[in-house]
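User: I'm putting together notes for a lab meeting next week and I want to include a structural view of one of the chains we've been expressing. I don't have a solved structure, so I'd like a prediction I can at least talk through. The sequence is below, exactly as it appears in our construct file.
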Amino acid sequence: MRVLQFAKRSVTLLATVSVALTGCGDSGPDVPFNPTGTSADLEAVNAAFGSSTFASFSSLSVLFDAAYGVPLVSSSAAAMDIRASSPAGMRAAAVRSAQRLAGLLPAAAHKGFSASSFAIPAGIAGKTYEYSGGAYIPSDRTGAPANGVRFLLYAVDPVTFMPVEPLVETGHVDITDLSGTSTQSARVQVVSGSTTYIDYTVTASNLTGRITVVGFVTDGTHQANLNLRATLSAAGALTLVYGLDVPQRDVSIDLTLTITNLDTSGTISMVLTMSGPNGTVSLSGQFTTTGGTLTVRTGGKTFATITVAGAAEPVITGADGLPITEDDGVALRGIFDITSGAFVSFDQMLVPVGVFLAPA
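Assistant: Thanks for the context. Below is the predicted structure for the 360-residue chain, given as structure tokens.
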């Protein structure tokens, strides 16, 4: 089933990209940049997204919409299996995110809405869905939230990311409708055993044209606190603001991506800052569909340049145009990778709750 090929990739993307999701890191430009320590910080952040429970959730959540019988923007591999590491791939992912946002916020910003229009679809409240024959089907199991649904999670094959046979139940996903009088909102909780591995709330405001995702992801040891905001303007510009805080490492990562002219070859502008005990690094610049350049600064000074052309691997050079050390290159590439799938990451977090937020 090819859709799960995207899920296989998404685990890697989210493990790397969802780190781009406001942080406490109080280390400033006076702290020297330590590339080895920075790489270790990134590995620790990624660990929060490395649990087998997260892998099951990433693999199987793309099937949830079909269980409701209310597909939204396509979750198929054709729509989501995008090489976001290239400028063209980043833009294609941004366009898809804008399409999903437009589906969730269809009215113009000055128009209001009735919360009752966004209630949980009739007939599914309180149901528990189990996997059978390649799809999720309603069961007689109890325990689902009264104003939501539950999906059972299973161990997945590390190669195909399909559930192993015979099925091994590992946990569940509860999705609860929290919509109020002025917003549409849904909460996602992923539990295995006595541990809640993922807990976030998605809120959509038709009055502001903004969707937010706030919560956390953990592997049981490392916790990443997430704060994502996406705004789609009437002029067609999409802005994503990601913040992540890992208290155990005193690391914060903040990223802003803006793409203009979604229906043409628009420009992606980005600013990323990673702060922690191993220094502060910032990346800023622009991309088009053919390439772009980012300036890297540490300690208040220009440190390096990252150049991307087409689908080629990024080229990182020192401020003087000479090659940088291997440790510097590994650390900077790890930070750059945060940006490469940001739109993919955000879009996937909307997939499990889209049916709750979209108008009937």
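A couple of points you could mention at the meeting. The two ends are 29 Å apart (CA to CA). The chain has one domain: 3-357.

User: Perfect, that's what I needed.
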